[in-house]
């Protein structure tokens, strides 16, 4: 995979990056620092254990070689393993309006444009102006209910409680360079370029990466109760390329001002470009993380998708139908200090089957002599 190097941010030599590579024997937690790849499996067998231990000193691992050489011969995997994969929805005003559009159009792309024009004119400015959970938001809610404009999506957009849902099972995410899946029976869908925060079991933000929270607009538009089918399918969640760990030169403040770019290149010659500016998010990232942990524990840690400003409306085929994916689309999500997440679209039916679950991972670790025995346990590390 010689092009993996191009997925790294331009300043990758200055940062500390956490990820997973298959160096020939199976998933291996690694750190990238100072131009070298360090195998950390001798310190902790999984990324989850490494995070729990806070073992981010590359000197404790085994230097494998220069980044350029190692990434050219290794297989790049999703940078997480045992963490729960959670996502925050409707965290931008534009995405709130698009969810209401899906709902009112009943998942019919042909009706979306007419609904969009009416909603934007009536409530677009109001939604952008209020702070979720504030008295002003409560007053807007009352006015919209009175006007017959209220929606369950507006509740999570401006109400006190954020939407936090489970995006994918543990170990089901795919990495940069892999195929990403869309249900074969979906006719209106899109990528969702997002920043993803990695947190430890305490809920402390450790680092950030990029993610594609693939969404089926027709399924969710028909009913919010179809969210599971709209969001969680084979290969429908990509994360990567690596987690950039927070340090003195890169922190949550950089995430709050990040610009996330999207480019789609279709085999039919179609191209689409867009961006998501984190400065326009309705709730601060750490508030979303707090709500994720408010009454739940995640002993193996969490990754949390922060939502997206991007909602593609550019027509691809017939006028008024907007955008939807086609097999073969190359989706590139990028941000200056996080790198490039690149995936090619296929159907969830045709994507490589997900076969490496938790038991398979631990069988592999045992065969390699990398079981948890001999390593600090998560409870020890968190004591």
From TrEMBL:
Kindly indicate where the leader peptide sits in this chain.
none
UniProt keywords (A-Z) are:
Metal-binding
The UniProt record lists the keyword Transmembrane helix: no
Which stretches make up the Fumarylacetoacetase-like C-terminal domain?
199-345
Which InterPro entries does the annotation name? FAH (IPR051121), Fumarylacetoacetase-like_C (IPR011234), Fumarylacetoacetase_C_sf (IPR036663)
Q: Which SUPFAM superfamilies match?
A: FAH
User: Is Metal-binding included in the keywords of this UniProt record?
Assistant: yes
Q: Which family does it belong to?
A: Belongs to the FAH family.
Name under which the protein is recorded: 2-dehydro-3-deoxy-D-xylonate dehydratase
- Organism for this UniProt entry: Novosphingobium panipatense
């Amino acid at each position: 995979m010689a092009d993996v190097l191009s997925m790294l941010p331009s300043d990758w030599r200055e940062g500390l990056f956490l990820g997973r590579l298959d160096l020939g024997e199976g998933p291996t937690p690694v750190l990238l620092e100072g131009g070298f790849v360090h195998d950390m499996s001798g310190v902790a067998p999984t990324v989850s254990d490494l995070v729990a231990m806070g073992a981010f000193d590359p000197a404790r691992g085994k230097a494998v070689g220069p980044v350029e050489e190692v990434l050219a011969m290794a297989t790049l995997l999703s940078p997480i393993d045992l963490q729960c994969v959670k996502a925050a929805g409707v965290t931008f005003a534009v995405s709130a309006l698009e969810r209401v559009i899906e709902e009112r159009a009943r998942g019919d792309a042909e009706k979306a444009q007419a609904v969009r024009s009416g909603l934007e004119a009536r409530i677009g400015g109001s939604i952008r102006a209020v702070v979720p959970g504030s008295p002003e938001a409560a007053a807007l809610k009352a006015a919209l209910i009175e006007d017959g404009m209220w929606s369950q999506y507006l509740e999570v957009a401006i109400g006190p409680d954020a939407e936090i849902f489970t995006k994918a099972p543990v170990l089901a995410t795919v990495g940069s360079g892999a195929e990403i899946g869309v249900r074969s029976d979906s006719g209106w869908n899109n990528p969702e370029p997002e920043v993803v925060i990695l947190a430890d079991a305490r809920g402390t933000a450790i680092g950030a990466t990029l993610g594609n929270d693939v969404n089926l607009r027709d399924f969710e538009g028909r009913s919010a109760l179809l969210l599971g089918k709209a969001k969680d399918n084979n290969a429908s969640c990509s994360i990567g390329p690596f987690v950039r760990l927070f340090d003195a030169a890169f922190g949550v403040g950089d995430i709050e001002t990040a610009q996330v770019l999207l480019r789609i290149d279709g085999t039919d010659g179609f191209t689409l470009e867009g961006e998501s500016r984190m400065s326009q998010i309705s709730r601060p990232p750490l508030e979303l993380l707090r709500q994720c942990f408010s009454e739940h524990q995640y002993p193996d840690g969490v990754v949390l998708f922060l939502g997206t400003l991007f909602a593609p409306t550019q027509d691809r085929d017939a006028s008024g139908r907007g955008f939807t994916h086609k097999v073969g689309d190359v989706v590139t999500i990028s941000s200056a200090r996080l790198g490039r997440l690149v995936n090619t679209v296929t159907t969830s039916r045709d994507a490589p089957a997900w076969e490496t679950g938790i038991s398979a991972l631990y069988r592999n670790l045992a065969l390699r002599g990398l079981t948890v025995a001999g390593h600090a346990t998560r409870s020890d590390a968190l004591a």
